Amino acid sequence: MKWEAILDKRKTLLNRRQFLVGGISAAMVGPTQAMAPKTGFILIGASWCPVCHRAAPVLAMFAQNLGAPVLVASADSRPIAPFEKFVPAQDHPIASAVNAYPTTLVFSGNSNHIVSSIEGYRNPKFYMKKLLDAVSAIENGRA
Predict the structure, then answer these.
(1) How far apart are CA 98 and CA 116, in angstroms?
(2) Which InterPro entries match (predicted)?
(3) Which residues pair with 114 in a beta bridge?
(4) Could you report the average pLDDT of every consecutive run of 10 residues in the chain (143 residues)?
(5) Could you tell me which of 140, 43, 122 has the C-alpha nearest to residue 85?
(6) Which of 7, 41, 131, 143 is 20 to 30 A distant from 53 in Cα terms?
(7) What is the pLDDT of residue 37?
(8) Dist CA 78 CA 29 (whole Å)
(9) What is the pLDDT of residue 36?
(10) 108-128 burial string, b = 16+ CB within 10 Å, else e?
């Protein structure tokens, strides 16, 4: 009975997180659609990293609503859900130098460079704000 209560609580937390992230993502769909070809993301993490498992679905929803690609560089050469495709981090020239997981790099097609790095993940609201700030900087020509 104790485990059932824990699982029920976890499902409730996941549903609240999906609601929060979905609501924030849906609110951004209109103004950010034009940014799609200008922005891309690189998620550097590992399949064993619990923080990576919390950040990855948030990034997936954000990128999907933006229409931006996500490259996943996995330190242990295993997928990080919900992303099925990945490259081994040790084979990626930038990801191989990263030691903190998760790290999200934001790429600008305007400047053809990495313009922002988000290290770690506190909660969906914090992470989404960091992503949105980076994308807004690209759109407004500040990055």
Answers:
(1) 14
(2) Thioredoxin-like_sf (IPR036249), TraF/TrbB (IPR039555)
(3) 107
(4) 48 46 44 58 97 97 95 97 96 92 94 93 95 92 75
(5) 43
(6) 143
(7) 54
(8) 31
(9) 41
(10) beeeeeebbbbeebeebeebb
Q: 17 in helix, strand or coil?
A: helix
- At residue 32's C-alpha, the angle toward residues 49 and 42, to 5°, is 30
What pLDDT, on a 0 to 100 scale, did the predictor assign at position 12?
47
Q: Which residue has tokens 């690609």?
A: 69
Characterise 122 by phi-psi region: left (phi > 0), alpha (psi -120 to 50), beta (else).
alpha
d(CA 126, CA 63): 16
CA angle 109, 112, 118 (to 5 degrees): 80
Instruction: Looking at the structure, give the CATH architecture of the domain made up of residues 2-139.
Output: 3-Layer(aba) Sandwich (3.40)
Distance CA 42, CA 117 (A): 9
